[in-house]
């Protein structure tokens, strides 16, 4: 997978740091993405329960599965030159 998307290793790091009560900004710095990306990732991997720190629990496997599902639903990219000529 390209660097455009977070991979399973990135998601595992997010899970470890989130469980260790690291801040979103700290995790973003370690992963090399914007804090907004971490917030979106925490939402993607949330199963609705709270962890031992009373924060929303993050499951990296669930996040990866939801990410893969969203990729499948995207569909085929448009051919912009053909659409512009019509």
Automatic annotation (TrEMBL):
Stretches for region Disordered: 46-86
Listed Basic and acidic residues bias regions: 63-72
Superkingdom as given in the UniProt entry: Bacteria
Domain Transposase IS30-like HTH: 2-45
Record-given protein name: Helix-turn-helix domain-containing protein
